[in-house]
Specification:
The complex is a heterodimer of chains A (112) and B (216).
Chain A lengths: L28 H15 L5 H11 L1 H6 L2 H15 L5 H13 L4 H4 L3
Helix pairs in contact in A: 1-4, 2-4
Chain B lengths: L30 H15 L5 H13 L2 H13 L1 H9 L1 H7 L8 E6 L4 E6 L8 H4 L9 H6 L4 H7 L9 E6 L4 E6 L11 H5 L4 H5 L8
Parallel strand pairs in B: 1-4, 2-3
The chains are: A mainly alpha (112), B alpha/beta (216).
Chain lengths: 112, 216
């Protein structure tokens, strides 16, 4: 029966899947920073957790399989901040170029 | 040129928590890491955030851990009226113990001899993070999210939990605003233990429902 309601990719409950991968990792400082940016920007009303989820869900299934959790989060945070007018895509591009010129590793590029 | 965590050069080893180190500071910069640095610096330059605020938020999150949840569970085991308040309003009851749950609704569900509770977030990764800290990686995987709601017993066996055949399994699907925590059943043989000793029996997984408390 066609209910007219299409299940989106992130709606995973009840689908077939293999064994649960039990590996765990310690979060890197850059991942903790992404997490902190989400919480703080949310607290300041720049966007909501629903805004974050909309961006994550719109990335599609391929992004879920290909990128790590906080890689997807920083992309979603960035999209929401650009939409909120906090900075422009040009400003982001220039800043990212400047960041990558600082060095080859995160330790060198973080400029702390 | 500085390294936040010089010990992470030894990337083949395990950290103090027994987990592998994640490639980070000393590996080639990824485009996502550049984006994190760029977004953070833009937010600071625009006056939206300060770098102090970001550090404080990271510290606050690091201070949250399953040990906080364990203290709440142990209190519920020894103090019946606290347990009643915890089951009625998890957010407020945790607040009594000065654990700030923020605006989230924290809903405590109790395991008994007959009922076993399991929590999941099928749509994303909602977790009682303001009490327990970051969720385990497996909580966010496709396998856990998909299967928890259809074959919880089989899933629990993978976690080493075999439930009695006649036990009722209740699976709770979390949302952004409603986060669950399991109050595991108090272990047999723990009758003479103090609240502090009891807290040491409460594991992270026992509060997700994928584990049981340690035996006394």
């Amino acid at each position: 029966m066609n209910t007219g309601i299409e299940r989106r990719w992130h709606d995973m409950g009840g689908l077939d899947s293999g064994p649960v991968p039990m590996e765990e990792h310690d979060f890197a400082i850059w991942e903790k920073r992404v997490d902190a940016l989400m919480i703080l920007c949310g607290g300041k009303g720049l966007f909501t957790v629903d805004g974050l989820r909309r961006a994550l869900e719109d990335m599609g299934e391929e992004a879920f399989e290909k990128h790590t959790y906080y890689e997807r989060w920083i992309a979603a945070i960035n999209q929401n901040l650009i939409e909120a007018g906090v900075y422009s895509i040009e400003e982001l591009g220039e800043k990212m170029e400047a960041v990558s010129r600082r060095g080859d590793t995160y330790g060198e590029a973080q400029n702390d | 040129m500085s390294h936040d965590h010089p010990e992470q050069i030894h990337h083949m080893g395990l950290s103090s928590s027994g987990h592998p180190f994640r490639n980070d500071n000393d590996f080639p910069l990824t485009c996502w890491q550049s984006m994190e640095i760029a977004v953070r610096e833009l937010l600071i330059e625009k006056g939206v955030l300060t770098s102090d605020e970001i550090s404080r938020q990271i510290d606050a999150m690091d201070a949250r851990s399953p040990a906080n949840g364990a203290r709440v569970v142990a209190r519920a085991w020894v103090d019946e009226s606290f347990k009643t308040r915890l089951l009625a309003n998890g957010t407020d009851a945790c607040g009594e113990m000065e654990f700030d749950i923020g605006p989230l609704n924290l809903i405590a569900v109790e395991n008994t001899g007959d009922v076993h509770n399991l929590i999941v977030c099928t749509l994303c990764s909602c977790y009682p993070r303001n009490l327990l800290g970051f969720p385990p990686d497996w909580y966010k995987t496709r396998a856990y999210r998909s299967r928890a709601v259809v074959e919880p017993r089989k899933l629990l066996r993978e976690f080493g939990v075999e439930l009695p055949k006649n036990a009722t399994v209740r699976v709770h699907d979390s949302t952004a605003d409603m986060r669950y925590i399991v109050i595991p059943a108090r272990p047999v043989g723990s009758e003479l233990m103090t609240e502090q000793e009891l807290a040491r029996l409460v594991t992270r997984d026992s509060m997700i429902g994928t584990g049981l408390p340690l035996e006394p």
